[in-house]
Specification:
Elements (H helix, E strand, L loop, with lengths): L2 H17 L8 H34 L4 E4 L3 H25 L3 H34 L1 E5 L5 E5 L13 E5 L2 E2 L1 E3 L2 E3 L11 H6 L3 H33 L8 H27 L1
Antiparallel strand pairs: 1-4, 2-3, 4-5, 6-7
Amino acid sequence: MSTEENNLELEAKYSTARSVDVFDQVSEDVKIRTKKMLMWFIIFAVVMLFAGITSALIVLYGKLMWVHINPPAILWVSNLLVIASSLSLIMAVKALKKGNQKGAMTLTLVTFLLGLSFVFTQNSGWGKLADIGMGYTITENEHGLKAYRWNALGRIKGEYDKDYWIEYQGQPLVKDGNEYYRASDSGRLDPVTTQVMTTFNASGALLSVLIYVHIIHLFFGIIYLAVNLRRVAVGKISQNNWISLHTSGMYWHFMGVLWLYLFFFMFFVY
């Protein structure tokens, strides 16, 4: 056998190996159930992660001074984007099941772009919060090394009682001029201003963690969408093989619901 024939044979074997699907030898029902079950395992793992973070938030809430802040408008926009992206993906799966390949591809692309827009608004939203003092400050020492220090509550900007307020042991602090007092201190005799000015902003730190850990997990959904978009474009995902787009939707819808829960939990519950 010549070298050229040998190379052609190896290439044919490699192409065949690449096209083998682990689900080729199973029935369609088993394939669908298995892929759905695998996605439910992934969703459960993400639920446990965020349950741990929110549990830490609940524990710290009762022990530290806690700042409540109004969400910036851009985060309300992100809520609309994530809802719209779920709707477009639902429509994409329905179009695929009806045999509308082009419509499914277009709607999947719309979902992908809405997902990127969501990430942009999330990052912009945190930028707005950081600008008013919810983030961290970067300093340099004499050797030019940067140090990151989370801001204290006293660094927050805005109108007290309108843009933000601080709570301690379940009671909002009262601000009188430049001084902070406990609500029970009706005579304004014992200010807690020094404590406010020096207390680590735990609520801001956990808020940023929840936003960016969610973004990281959403990126997996965006990558999955990009892969499935290509599969739809080449016909690998079609009317007779729609489960991958469906499971992509399971993850995507879950991440959308998770964000809406986190949004109301962070800004209106805690």
